[in-house]
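Handoff note, outgoing to incoming analyst
You'll be picking up this chain. Sequence as last confirmed:
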Amino acid sequence: MTPILSWLFLSTCSPAICGERPAGLPPDTGVDFVLRKVKEKEDRLKTLEALFFQEKQSSLLKELLKSEGTLFFDHAGRRMLVRVEKPRPFKVLLEKGRVVTSDPTSLETEEYYLGSGDVLGAYLGLGRSPEELKMQYDISLRNTGSEHTIALRLIPKGRRLKRRIRVIDADVDRRTWLPVLIRYDDARGGSTKIRLKIISENQPLPEGVFEIGWGAQESW
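Most recent structure output, in case you need it:
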């Protein structure tokens, strides 16, 4: 799930790196403008609830792997929960310095400690400075063919990132500056596409939503 919030990346990008604004885009959609609006949205985003629909393809998979569910994000608690509902229930909690997974069918819960750092910052790019991101990625814009969306393309620079990531494309809704589609191509020829449907932002989240266990009200 590493790229699921890659739209939060911020960079000050020069034309030499990112190129000029693609033909056909409105005049207020240069790279600097888009990144500034996305960063402003990040700063204002306190909570988020969204449905996600993921398709994953790799050389090891004969068929397209599809999954769907709901994600919940809480900025104050620096935590995000991904609740997979199909093809089978599964939960992943990213919180501070740990990642916790829960499988209701086996009643197994696994917890991984990643140190005292901020796991959301490490995994999702939250809080990274423009200088750090500029060192890691080339960022450009693409025309999506829709007046309501615009796409950011992120290509890693460093050898370490290039071993895992080939390219990240994030379609951003220009009305909300939130992502609606994220495509992630890995270095081994695999690809992941995640479509997001925003349910609410900056609204109270359901009580107990970040509990990693499975309550009786949750069907599985």
